[in-house]
Amino acid sequence: MKSVRDRLLRAFDGLASVLSYGVNPRLINYARLFFNKTYSYAMRRSFKHAGDNFLIYFPAVIMGAENIAIGANFVSYSRLRLETYSEHLGNHYRPRIFIGDNVAMNYDCHIGCINQIVIGNNVLMGSKVHITDHSHGEISRGALATPPALRTLVSKGPVIIEDNVWIGEGVVILAGVRIGENAIIGANAVVTKDIPRNCVAGGIPARVIRSLDEES
Q1: How many CA atoms lie within 13 A of 124 on its CB side?
Q2: Quick check: is 97 in a domain?
Q3: Cis bond upstream, residue 147 (ω within 30)
Q4: What is the pLDDT along the chain (216 residues), one digit of tens a residue?
Q5: Which domain holds residue 206?
Q6: Is 11 inside a domain boundary?
Q7: Measuring CA to CA, which residue among 22, 41, 19, 38 is closest to residue 30?
Q8: Which CATH number covers residue 56?
C-alpha cells in the first residue's frame, strides 16, 4: 500500500512540475488579490461602517459586525478574528469597536469586545496580536467555584489605542488600557497598564523602556 501511495505522490509531483512551467506566479497573485477583493466586498456589507479601500484576506471570523465601524484604507491579512458580544450567558452588553483610517493588521490578529475598543489612525499591528476589553469572570477565590466557560464576562474598562502606534508581534493588550500616540509596543509584551505617548514599551507586564520625550 505504501509503495502505491509513493508512486502516486511521485506522479503528482511530476505533473505539478510540468504544469508549473505554464503558470505565471504574478497571475496567481493577481487571482488571489481578486478573490480577496471580492470576499472583502461581501464582508463589508455587514459592518456598521467600512470606508474606502477595505481589504480583509480570507479567511476571517467576524462576529457582531453591526457594532464595528472601520475607516478608510483598512487591510487585514488572513485569519483575522474581530468579535463583539452583545449577549453571553443571559447577560447583555453594548459593545463598540472603532477603527480609524490607514490601519493594517498582520496574520492571526484577534480583537474581542463587550465594552469599547478604539484604534486610532495609522496603527500598524504585527501578527498574532490580541486585544480584549474583557475576561471570563473576576479574578477572585469565589470565582473558582464556577468553570471558566460559565463565568460572566467582565470588563475593567475600554481599550484606547491612539494614532500612529506600532504594535509588535504577539502582543496582548488587556482591558482598561490606553496606549498613547506614537508609542511602540515590543514583541510579545503584555500590556496591563497605560503606556504614555512617544515611548517604547516591552515586557510582561509591559513597562516603558525608552521615552522619546526625554531625549533631546
Answers
A1: 8
A2: yes
A3: no
A4: 567 777 777 876 877 777 677 777 888 888 888 999 999 999 999 999 999 999 999 999 999 999 999 999 999 999 999 999 999 999 999 999 999 999 999 999 999 999 999 999 999 999 999 999 999 888 788 788 888 888 899 999 999 999 999 999 999 999 999 999 999 999 999 999 999 999 999 999 999 999 987 765
A5: 23-214
A6: no
A7: 38
A8: 2.160.10.10
With left for phi above 0 and alpha for psi between -120 and 50, is residue 53 left, alpha or beta? Answer: left
Burial tier of 11 (Cβ tally within 10 Å: 0-12, 13-18, 19+): exposed
Q: Which of 88, 110, 130, 136 is catalytic?
A: 136
| Total domains in the fold of the chain | 1
Going by C-beta distance under 8 Å and a sequence separation of 6 or more, which residues neighbour residue 62?
43, 46, 68, 80, 82, 83
Q: Give the model's pLDDT for residue 24.
A: 77
Alpha-carbon distance of 30 to 16, in angstroms, equals 20
36 in a domain, yes or no? yes
- Residue 169 — left, alpha, or beta (φ > 0 → left; ψ -120 to 50 → alpha)? beta
- The alpha carbon of 159 is separated from its chain's Cα centroid by a whole number of angstroms, namely 14
In a domain, 7, yes or no: no
Confirm whether 136 is a catalytic residue. yes
